[in-house]
Amino acid sequence: MGHMECRTKWTGDMGFESHIRTHKFTMDAKTEVGGKDQGPTPKELLLASICGCTGMDVASILKKMRVNLLSCDVNAQAHTTHGYPSIFEEVKLQYHIEGSDIKPEQAMKAVTLSMTKYCGVSAMVSKASPMRYEVILNGSKIGEGKADFEGVKE
Predict the structure, then answer these.
(1) Distance between CA 113 and CA 52 in Å, rounded?
(2) Domain 42-146: what homologous superfamily?
(3) pTM (predicted TM-score)
(4) Burial of 4 (0-12, 13-18, 19+ CB in 10 A)
(5) pLDDT digits over 23-63, tens only?
(6) Closest of 142, 143, 67 to residue 102, by C-alpha
(7) Pick from 1, 49, 71, 115: CA 20 to 30 A from residue 14's CA?
């Protein structure tokens, strides 16, 4: 399907600069492990990738439902395991969706579709780390669930 490419150059110590298409960003380690904290760590970028991928899904699905989507924020937390390789023990996501005419079942459907069918980043990560989520619509929690891509063909 789609081809992707990333060029990454060491900038000294624990720093790296990546180039994707016309975009450039820095990754670095935290100071306590020898970095200079000049950018997010690779695992932090992975959390951001999860949020961005599923957020794009949810916003797109809700727009197709023709609702008045005012905001769609996705927050993530994860703790890493001890030892090597250090991976996410579990990823916890919170979707904060705002829109006066969005029904709870619409918001839940959009998030569930992302977490069971569409979000490629979550599909990859969930093979190694469980992912749980909660959905908050207009300030009230309306539901929760877990990523489950078992029925999706590879």
Answers:
(1) 15
(2) K homology (KH) domain (3.30.300.20)
(3) 0.93
(4) exposed
(5) 999 999 999 999 999 999 999 999 999 999 999 999 999 99
(6) 67
(7) 49
